[in-house]
Amino acid sequence: MIRVRRITTVDPLYEQECALRDAVLLRPIGYSMEAFRRDFGIDDRAEHFVAVFDHPSGPRVVGCALLIPDYPHPGVGKLMQMAVDLQRQGEGIGRRLVVELERRAFGELGLREVFCHARDDAMGFYSRLGWRVDGEQFTEVGVPHHRMCLTPPDEDDEGE
Ligand SMILES: CC(C)(COP(=O)(O)OP(=O)(O)OC[C@H]1O[C@@H](n2cnc3c(N)ncnc32)[C@H](O)[C@@H]1OP(=O)(O)O)[C@@H](O)C(=O)NCCC(=O)NCCS
């Protein structure tokens, strides 16, 4: 069974989260956790959502996403470091993580927008979840990206 949990950087699962980010997101583009920490430095202020598989030998982190609340302005949040274990992609784990992150962002935190820098390869994923493209393509860490964003459900509802 997969559970989505919110953890901090002192949680024992944080190390597994970093290993997953390194394997799925960073190493494939020639980047590293050290370089990410140096360039972005957001892990301590981010909320960490992890998808955890209850393996008989202990919990395994199979997906993660970060939310940086009130970044870069109050009322706005940034989703970063969205990753699902290569062996577990296509099972709905990414969707569950984003839904949980949205619930937290628009519910308890009361944010009015969440955005991300979507790698072009992943834009279809965010589109399926109702996010919209906002602006032109740009390059970040050597990879083409688009800004994508979502506003709370009632603000998106324009009626029929
Ligand atoms: C992108 C990623 C997070 C998606 O997670 P996932 O668990 O595989 O996605 P899900 O199974 O929850 O898919 C949800 C929906 O999005 C679709 N989808 C998933 N990845 C997609 C992609 N890359 N392009 C287009 N559609 C995609 C699925 O088909 C599914 O559609 P459905 O609603 O018709 O069923 C995962 O594939 C991943 O870690 N990729 C590598 C790292 C990466 O690119 N991260 C994003 C950086 S911005």
Brief overview:
The chain is of the alpha+beta class and 160 residues long.
Give an overview of the whole structure.
- There is one protein chain.
- The chain is α+β, with helices and mostly antiparallel strands.
- It has a domain at 2-112: 3-Layer(aba) Sandwich (Aminopeptidase).
- 28% of the residues lie in helices and 34% in strands.
- It has five helices and eight strands.
- The radius of gyration is 15 Å and the shape is globular.
- It binds coenzyme A (COA).
Please describe the structure with a list of short key phrases separated by commas or semicolons.
160 residues; 5 helices; globular; single chain; eight-stranded mixed beta sheet; alpha+beta; Aminopeptidase; binds coenzyme A
